[in-house]
Prior knowledge:
Order of helices and strands: HEHEHEHEEHHHHHHEEHEEHEEH
Structural class: alpha/beta
Number of helices: 13
Strand order of the largest sheet: 6-7-8-9-11-10
Amino acid sequence: MYHLVLEEVGRMLEELQGSGVLIHHWDTDGVCSARLLLERLPKSVVNKTPILGNYFLTEEELISYSSSDFVIVTDMALPEENIKRLAKHAKVLIFDHHLQQPIPGVVHHNPIGEGLDPLLYPSASWIVNDFLSNPVNVFALLGIVGDYEKRIQANKEFYSKITDFCIKERFTFDELLMMVYLLDSSYKIGDRKAVEEIPQLLLEYTDARRILQNVRWKNNLVLLENEIAKFVNAPGEEQQGILLKRIHTKFNIISTVTRRIAWNSGKDTVVVNTGFFKDTDQIYVRSSKNLQPLIHQGKMLGYRCGGKTEVLGAVVPKEKTESFAYEIMKFLSIS
Length: 335
């Protein structure tokens, strides 16, 4: 089944004509996946990211993108109803590694959705690069480092690939990690336009070390690190070995705050941010447990909810935040 899907995606990619839009996640994995795809797509293709913090498309976005002849989505598990609506008017191709069931009427290239081992497909950038039959390159690896950071060192197969590449190209792992922080800085300060400029800029960066020299991103990082440290170091609540932290910030740093707390403590971590949206709150979870049932529960409750086995991200109406946080804590305590 998986190889049949690969062949079908390949044919569709070769046959794409007319106007196209490439929708990608805002983080390093998303912008690097977009960069790899743009290199092989018609120059007329426009890349877009959803409103920062939204794991769905707004009505305005749906109307705009539905006028395209084809839509490519990478590193985003958009809601099924979004995808089906786009597919009414356009060819839709998905390149992803998040948890999502195959959607009728579109073509998925998602090994994780097909039940394959996530450890063998650690990022969308790796999946895209492999599909395009590219050699190992910095953009394929940056998506992996972005999603795992130093934890990728525990994945012997991929850390070996990263190490071999670094030796060959005279990079260090810490340089790759700094590139991730710099690339992520645009979305974390809330600059959507700057995020959408990154894939095109990366096409120009024949020497990836230019990422380390980008003054704008370096300035972003100073601002962000001060804000992140403030929340990571602040006291939180602990219930049955589960950490719960409430933050209030205009910056889109909830995933980074959650990751650092969880990895530093080794404990299941829940972070609630009440400062990013006006009418909704962000909730982010990192756990050693399988969060798929919790993601499903969030979707059944009508929340914008997605993630991977060990990660949950949700956008919840403010009046529902406490009740869903309670459900999360209950799930983690009994799982």
